[in-house]
Amino acid sequence: MNCVHWRHEGNAVFPSWRDREDYLERFGPRALLWVGELREAQAWGWTPPALCTALRGRIQVDNRGCCVELGASDVLLTEGGNGLRVDTVGGEARVAVLWLAPAGLRGRASVDPLPAFFAQDSELAIALNRLAQSASDLSVDTHAVLDQLLSLLSRRQQDLAQALANCPGRSDRHRRQLYARLLRAKHVIDHGQAVPLDLAALAQVASLSPSHFLRLFHRVFGASPHRYLVQQRMLRARRMVVETSVPIGTIAQRMGFINRCAFARLFKQQFGTPATRLRRMALMQARASVTRAFGVVGNGGARVTYSHQPEAA
Length: 313
What we know:
Elements: E1 3-8, H1 20-27, E2 31-38, E3 42-47, E4 50-56, E5 59-63, E6 66-70, E7 75-77, E8 82-88, E9 93-99, E10 116-118, H2 122-133, H3 142-159, H4 161-165, H5 172-191, H6 199-205, H7 210-221, H8 225-243, H9 248-254, H10 260-271, H11 275-293, E11 294-297, E12 303-306
């Protein structure tokens, strides 16, 4: 696949087109790589599938009504044929967006890849970063890096094959379209705010009736939407307990729990230990890691020496 580079520095213009026909007229059946600084939101009414990542800072990507926040090593593959909006989170950011060639124009491919969010996928993020660097580094073989990136993406798509196989449909195209609808709702659960997400709201995201959505979601992902929602929120809560100093009660509120006691019971049931104890254990492990890395001598730890150095007599 050929690739067009579009760098944005300073006051340079952003890539733009009106629709599919305009994209093809401007770039032809090729991929488009955009690398540059992002100071304000940019939006397109129609785009091919796109790989998005933040090279610096954090960004928020809105695709088909699903907002996903991306940081280091996060990569989002958007759903083609829909609008795309990219904005900064907390200040300026540097982004890389790779729009793939429109479906039907990539040799044997006749359908767009399935949308997906790859959290902390360093391998895919590094390949996308290398492709971004190739725009200004002549020593980097752009075609080789692009081929490696597309090969990684192909393997990630194969991982979705089992869930796709569980999705009913009259044809492969119909199954993929239905699966993409379910993924929209799943991504909302995975990355949405801690706001009420009832069955009707999620079904509307997937453009399905509530009863049909409930049956399909359970069939494809192995859990009801409500159970999956609770599981994801508890996993986010566990990360906040272990990795931050946010009060437990505040975490419970952010995860949508009005009753802290209910949150505490569910947390212990889910992870086998209370949240407060898990935080203490995480702190102890962190201190032990520091102690192994550094040797502390003297009263009150006033003097620190590297552990591989001999202590003073």
